[in-house]
Write a structure and sequence with these properties.
61% of the residues lie in helices and 3% in strands. The chain is mainly α.
């Protein structure tokens, strides 16, 4: 369905596979059931009574992860730009070498032309 990933799109599943994104989920009880009505805050307190309280905790954790993802995107852009800059530098060096060789050939041709002019007496 999606053919190409855009730099502005953050693929959380991919980030999770790579170990960059780790969602904060409520702890399981003894039976292995997650209770989403109780979520732990960063201070260690529990929030009770809110059936959707886990969304705020997920939003807080997601914002930090999205900032990390944004910094990864920025790093990738920097790497791409430095690669492009390196390619441009090598192209300039190659073109500089070609220009130098052409100048040497022109100098050689001018010397040959001067010798021919002296022989002919022009």
């Amino acid at each position: 369905m999606f053919k190409r990933k855009n730099d502005e799109i953050v693929d959380l599943a991919d980030l999770q596979k790579r170990g960059i994104y780790k969602p904060k989920l409520p702890e399981k009880d003894g039976k292995g059931i997650m209770d989403f009505s109780k979520t732990s805050q960063d201070s260690g307190e529990t929030q009770e009574g809110s059936a959707l309280g886990f969304l705020s905790a997920m939003a807080e954790s997601s914002s930090g992860e999205l900032e990390a993802s944004a910094s990864l995107v920025a790093e990738n852009k920097k790497k791409k730009l430095s690669e492009v800059l390196g390619n441009m530098k090598s192209d300039i060096r190659q073109n500089n070498d070609k220009v130098y060789k052409l100048i040497e050939r022109i100098d050689l041709l001018e010397k040959k032309l001067e010798r021919i002019e002296r022989r002919v007496g022009i």
